[in-house]
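Incident log, structure service

09:12 report received: a user says their structure output differs between two submissions of the same chain.
09:20 pulled the input from the user's history:
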Amino acid sequence: MKNFYHKNYEIIVYLIFGVLTTVVYFIGRFLTVALSQNALLAVVVAQSAAIIFAFVTNKLWVFKQAEKSSLLTQFLKFVAARLLVFFLDLFVTWLCIEKFGAFFIKFFGLNQLTYTAGLTQWPIVKSFIGSPVLANTFIWSMVIQVAAIILNYIFSKLFVFKNKKQ
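09:34 re-ran on a clean worker, output below:
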């Protein structure tokens, strides 16, 4: 088990911080939606908070033996790599929530679910999935976050925090 951990340290730690980055993202996104009722603004706030959190954790703990270039250079590369996911998130939000939200609510049958019983009575759950619109937002947010974790690891490993060949 110890050998498995050491052999896969980078991926294991990346996944842990990826999950924590996702938590930061969701807190930022849903708090902004709750305060502003604006899904696109929520993406901007959530992505900004997640990018800063992810850069710090990736730099310090995930890719700690990475090439030592300037902090500013690494941060700019990191942000550039994350912009693809940021714009993908904006596009999916616009397309699947803003533009065709009613279609996807009907497609997933979210308008036929009961939002007045079970776990949806818990305030925290209700704020995430307490209506068809919120449930649709949650589904698409999860889809984009899974894609983000995979794409961001690849970009960080190959472009931002790459190790020099010995």
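09:41 both user submissions now match this output. Likely a transient worker issue. Closing.
09:42 reviewer note: The radius of gyration is 18 Å. The chain has a mean pLDDT of 86.
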